[in-house]
Amino acid sequence: MREIGDYAFSGAGLESIYFGLNSELRTIRQGVFNECKDLRSIAVPANVEVIESFAFRESGLVSLICAQNSRLARIKEQAFVGCANFNNVELPLSVEIEDSAFDGCFQLNANLFESSAEFKRVTGWTVEKWWNSKFDGHRK
After folding, report:
1. Is the Cα dihedral 8, 95, 114, 131 positive or negative?
2. For residue 42, what is the enclosing H or E element?
3. pTM check: above 0.90
4. The domain spanning residue 88 has which CATH number?
5. φ, ψ at 135 (rounded to 5°)
6. The domain containing residue 13 runs over which residues?
7. C-alpha distances in angstroms, 88 versus 32, 38, 66, 107?
8. Using CA atoms, how far apart are residues 39 and 31, in angstroms rounded to an integer?
């Protein structure tokens, strides 16, 4: 499976998501896990390149971990907006984060790992404020 449709699981009672080691999923589509209040964790498959807007909006997400060989390149605006319990994210340094992707994620801690590409940019005052508060303006 390479794609799951927009809002496919919106409001569902999912607690965790695991796609398997050989997943061909390329995009986590708009609103696909929107308002999944019971959702706690997701392991993002290595082939995922984009997490679209509102993908996890107001879900119960606590932890998101990308594979070490992740191809994740972009997290779109408001992808995780309102995830108040979201506190653990592991992302490749190459990811581009759009405006307000993490708005309302007040407990967020990030672990960034090296990938084949350099860190590109962080856009939007909300993410920049978060980034600076967590890493004193520098990546670790």
Report:
1. negative
2. strand 41-44
3. no
4. 3.80.10.10
5. -125, 15
6. 1-140
7. 20, 16, 11, 8
8. 14
